[in-house]
Design brief:
This protein is mostly helical. The chain has a single domain, classed as SP0561-like. The longest helix is centred in the last third of the chain and has 17 residues.
Length: 70
Amino acid sequence: MASVNKEMTIGDVLRLDRGTAPIFMAFGMHCLGCPVSTGESIQDAAAVHGIDADKLVEELNKFFAAQGEK
C-alpha cells in the first residue's frame, strides 16, 4: 500500500494513482498538470493555496488505504 507524506510532490502522488486527482481538486488544487506540480512539495503547494497540508495528506492516505482493501 502506498503512503503519502507532505514532502512528496503532487506529481509523485498522481504517478502512484491518478484516482487521487479528485481529492486534490476537492481541496482547490486545480493545477494538477502545471509544471510546478512536479517540483513543489505538497506542503509548499498547500501553503500557496491556503490549504491544510495535513488534512490533504490524511485524505490521500485514506484513499490509498481503501485501495489496499480492494
